[in-house]
Amino acid sequence: MTLTQSTANASSSLSTISEQISIVSQNIARVNNADATRKVANVVSGPGGGVSVAGISRTANKLLLDTYLTANSSSQTQSVINSALDQLQNTVGDTDSETSPASLIAKLTSSLQDYSASPQNDAVGATVVTAAQELVNSLNGATQAVTDVRNQADSDIAASVNDINNLLAQFQTLNQQVVTGTSSGTDVTDALDARDAVLKQLSTEVGIRAVSRENGDMAIYTDSGVTLFDKTARKVTFQQSSNLSPSAVGNPVYADGVPIAGTSHVMSISSGKLAGLVEIRDSIAPTYQSQLDEVARGLIETFAESDQSATPTLPDAAGLFTYGGGPTIPTSGTVVPGLAGSIKVNPNVDPSQGGDASLVRDGGISDPGNPAYTYNTTSGSSYTDRIQQLITGLDTSRTFDPSSQIQQSGSVADYAKSSVSWLEALRQSASNEAESRQATADRATSSLSQATGVNLDEEMTNLLSLERTFQASSRLINTVDSMLSTLLQASG
Amino acid sequence: MISSSFISSASITDETRRSMARLQSQLVDAQKELSTGRHADVGVTLGATTGVSVSMRQDMDQIQAIQNSNNLVLNRLTASQDALSTISSSTSTFLSALITGQTAGTSQDTLVQAATASMQTLQDQLNASLDGQYLFAGINSDVQPMDDYFGSPPSAGQQAVTNAFVVKFGITPDDPAVANISPSDMQDFLDNEFANLFSGSNWSGTWSAASDKPVSNRISRTEVVNTSVTANDSTFSNLTEALTMVAGLGLANMSSGTQQVIIAKARELTANVTGSLTQVQSALGVTQQRISDSNDQIDTQVDFLTKSIDNLEQIDPAAVTTQLSQISTALQAAYSLTNQLNNLSILNYLSNS
Question: What domains, with CATH codes, occur in chain B?
Answer without folding.
Answer: 53-306 (1.20.1330.10)
